[in-house]
Amino acid sequence: MRSTIHAKEVKVWDPLLRLFHWTLLGSFCAAWFSEDELFESVQDRLSGEYLQEVHVWAGYAIAALLLFRLLWGFVGPRYARFRDFVHRPGETLAYLKAVLAWRAPRHLGHNPAGGAMIIVLLLSLSVTVVSGLALYAADKGLGPLAGLLVAASDGTIDAIKGTHELATHFTLLLVVGHLIGVVWESLLHRENLVRAMITGRKRA
Hints:
InterPro entries: Cyt_b561_bac/Ni-Hgenase, Di-haem_cyt_TM, Hydrogenase_cytochrome, Ni-dep_Hydgase_cyt-B
Strand content: under 5%
Membrane topology: Multi-pass membrane protein
Order of helices and strands: HEHHHHHHHHE
Main location: membrane
Family: Belongs to the HupC/HyaC/HydC family.
Transmembrane segments: 12-34, 54-75, 113-138, 166-188
Largest sheet: 2 strands, antiparallel
């Protein structure tokens, strides 16, 4: 029975892509929950410094993961490559209309809407990371951009902080939208997409 089940499945998501996916999720959660303003009531100075360290290193981890995903989008296996899931805007809109009508075709890899979400997420995360590094440099005088922004004015710091917060909140909205899309597609095609991203296998 087990061999019959596996015969009906094919490998889609490679191990490195799956590791990237779950590590990125964990890093974003660590960065979000260690953000200073979420813990303003914490009186212990050591706790505050520890949370900041977690936030900074989570940001570095996200930066490294984004660089890996950029590379993997060109040299990785078929379903990890950008050319497999990046579609023209018209195709993406047509797919979204089909999804809402509950008649969207199934894709073994990322569907056009999922591909568009990935690109927007990667861009949003990139803005979040770069603005975070800029804020770390301008406000604390630390990080790889410290030499450029250590003498930044208060107005510049406020502008960078606003950009970082806006990008972070936008990324969070995208994550929520991604989760809704995963649930919707799972119900539409009667397929557990979360399980697929864990095992790497999907129904043939």
